[in-house]
TrEMBL record:
Domain Amine oxidase residues, every copy: 50-534
Purpose: Catalyzes the 6-electron oxidation of protoporphyrinogen-IX to form protoporphyrin-IX.
Pfam families named in the record: Amino_oxidase (PF01593)
Protein name: Protoporphyrinogen oxidase
Enzyme class: oxidoreductase
Record flagged with keyword Flavoprotein: yes
Compartments in which it is found: Mitochondrion inner membrane
NCBIfam families linked: proto_IX_ox
Keyword presence, Oxidoreductase: yes
GO BP annotations, alphabetical order: protoporphyrinogen IX biosynthetic process
EC numbers for this chain: 1.3.3.4
Chief location: mitochondrion
């Protein structure tokens, strides 16, 4: 986490800590207008998910004279963000089929975007002292174990008594564990935790956490890509415990290391503080959403872009991309009858990276971007359930995650977790009752070719609720949605594959094809908006035309020094 929420009211002073970030800043000083005001570039954006829409939003600000066109393959923009209202009696409930909550502490740009779009009044924030923030559970046979809240200094006895926490004592000896070999470039999260701490921590707590974010396998996800700061600390200080004195001393002098990716958003934030409505709502929030669901963000973005002259073509899947070597312009085709579209000076792809690899081929049908062709994504089923009873005897809280260590005979539905929506996003629905979401599948379904249908999904979800929570009531409304290949997985080697992808983009498209979105630098909505902002931040500089969007994967890991000081200090 780059910033603790209680720093929201504090001033941030930033200094990039590594050479790459410094170079970035000095380049910014050397602003050279590449495109004249009257004759801006023709820019095509592939994909109208949150990354594509926010890329267009920031691009419109950075290059007002550019001609921006979004090509969206499906009949609606928003990508995985989709909220529907289910009529119940005289009111309705909001079902989210993709993302549902955002964190205010790590996505500093998103609140600004929400404010710019006039959505501040629609924000529903969950306070940090609300049960949905303090009560997060992991299922460990055969009950829900509440995660201790460090800020409350609680949980010591629980940690010793609950088998879920077995292995945590290894932190006491982590300092004595030898550092990784210098030639080890990456490893799985499970391998790192087992090597430095205890395998049981990887199988239990950490796998549950990764189920909640990536729906992914702790044995395959990349430590370097998912926890870069911990990877860096081991390399720099020899152990995680060994980094504590330095981290502590930094904190005392008001500084912490943060992701260089967030660097730009913090600069933006220094320039323009949040307005009082949103600042008030988010300063004490752990998560937030919008009254009518996150689709509200997509709709507002779409309207804003259309009003600012951005063209959006829905039902327009791009099926081929190539560069005309004479003009260095990019040609693209849409699927129907191979119809050719106007050429673009720059193309920004926000589609799943493996799909991009499939549409960028040479004359013999071989992909020009083989590094992206290897990206794997998991499929999940999202099962929304609404019960008219408000009190079903369930615990209050955000919900619970199910670790990978739970044997399949105790989790035959292959569930990843359950969200208690009526508590987590309280205030969204106009009828009272209990709203839950069960997430099934993820890496458990890797290699499957057939998936449960909607009816099976609902009965699997109900079986889980019955077994884990003793909940046998009949839901008033349900919906099960299969989301195929929806969460890209940053598997071991992701970092070096992205570095190679950067070279491939340079070689075959000379930087005219750029990438952003969930396939590369983070799967959360905040990450996607961040990647859009980072991609276009220097769009008015000459160097931008060669940028691929994957520069951060070249060279060493980079972090920014984030200074926090109370105003006036
Ligand atoms: C079930 C689920 C729950 C999640 N929960 C959360 C959460 O609570 N919080 C959070 O922060 N994040 C969450 N996420 C992650 C987050 O929603 C996604 O990572 C993010 O929405 C991805 O946005 P994107 O624009 O990068 O990609 P996408 O949403 O995939 O958008 C890409 C778009 O490109 C289009 N497209 C594809 N191919 C072509 C083509 N050839 N031509 C033209 N268009 C094309 C697609 O139709 C799509 O609209 C969740 C994701 C899922 C699936």
């Amino acid at each position: 986490m780059l910033l603790c929420a209680n720093h929201v009211t504090r001033q941030l002073i930033l200094r990039p800590s590594y050479s790459g970030a410094r170079a970035w800043v000095s380049r910014r000083r050397d602003v050279r207008r590449h495109y004249s005001e009257s004759n801006g570039p023709n820019i095509a954006i592939l994909g109208g998910g949150i990354t594509g829409l926010s890329t267009a939003f920031y691009l419109r600000e950075a290059l007002p004279s550019s001609k921006i066109t979004i090509y969206e393959g499906s009949d609606r923009v928003g990508g995985w963000i989709r909220s529907t209202a289910k009529g119940i009696g005289s009111g309705d409930v909001i079902f989210e089929h993709g993302p549902r909550t955002l964190r205010p502490t790590i996505g500093l740009l998103t609140p600004h975007l929400i404010e710019d779009l006039g959505l501040a009044q629609d924000v529903i924030a969950t306070r940090r002292d609300a049960p949905a923030s303090t009560n997060r559970y992991i299922y460990y046979p055969d009950h829900l174990v509440r995660m201790p809240m460090p800020q409350a200094g609680e949980g010591i006895s629980q940690v010793w008594n609950e088998p879920l926490f077995e292995g945590i004592g290894s932190a006491l000896t982590e300092w004595f564990v030898s550092t990784r070999p210098s030639n080890l470039q990456d490893e799985s999260v499970a391998s790192f935790i087992s090597r430095r701490l205890d395998r049981r921590m990887a199988d239990n707590m950490v796998s549950a956490l990764l189920h909640g974010i990536y729906a992914g396998d702790v044995n395959q996800l990349s430590m370097k890509s998912i926890f870069p700061l911990l990877w860096y600390y081991e390399g720099r200080y020899g152990s995680l415990v060994g980094s504590i004195p330095s981290v502590w001393s930094n904190l005392r002098s008001g500084m912490m290391l943060g992701s260089a990716r967030e660097y730009q958003s913090i600069l933006d934030r220094q320039r323009k503080p949040l307005g009082s409505t949103l600042k008030e709502k988010l300063s004490r929030a752990s998560v937030y959403t919008l009254k009518r669901g996150l689709t509200g963000l997509v709709s507002a973005l779409r309207e804003r872009l259309l009003s600012r002259g951005v063209t959006i073509h829905e039902n327009t899947p791009i099926s081929a991309l190539s560069m005309d070597s004479a003009t260095e312009k990019i040609e693209y085709q849409i699927t129907s009858a191979g119809k050719s579209l106007p050429q673009a000076d720059q193309v920004i792809s926000t589609v799943f990276s493996r799909h991009l690899a499939n549409i960028c081929k040479d004359g013999s049908g071989t992909t020009l971007l083989p590094s992206f062709g290897e990206t794997h994504a998991v499929s999940v089923m999202v099962v929304n359930l609404f019960f008219q009873e408000s009190d079903l005897g369930m615990p209050e809280g955000f919900g619970y995650l199910i670790p990978q260590s739970i044997p399949i005979d105790q989790n035959p539905e292959r569930a990843l977790g359950v969200i208690f929506d009526s508590c987590a996003t309280s205030g969204q629905d106009s009828v009272s009752g209990t709203k839950l979401t069960v997430i099934l599948g993820g890496h458990w379904w890797d290699g499957w070719t057939e998936f449960p249908d909607e009816e099976e999904g609902v009965s699997m979800a109900r079986a889980i609720l019955s077994r884990h929570l003793g909940l046998n009531a009949t839901p008033t409304a349900t919906q099960a949605t299969l989301q195929r290949e929806c969460i890209p997985q940053y598997l071991v080697g992701h970092w070096s594959r992205m570095e190679k992808g950067h070279q491939e983009l340079k070689q075959h498209f000379k930087g005219k094809l750029k990438v952003a979105g969930s396939s590369y630098t983070g799967v959360g909505v905040n990450d996607c908006i961040q990647s859009a902002r980072n991609l276009v931040v220097d769009a008015d500089e000459l160097a931008w035309k060669d940028k691929t969007g994957l520069e951060e994967f070249t060279g060493d890991l980079r972090f920014a020094e984030v200074y926090f000081r109370t105003r006036g200090e």
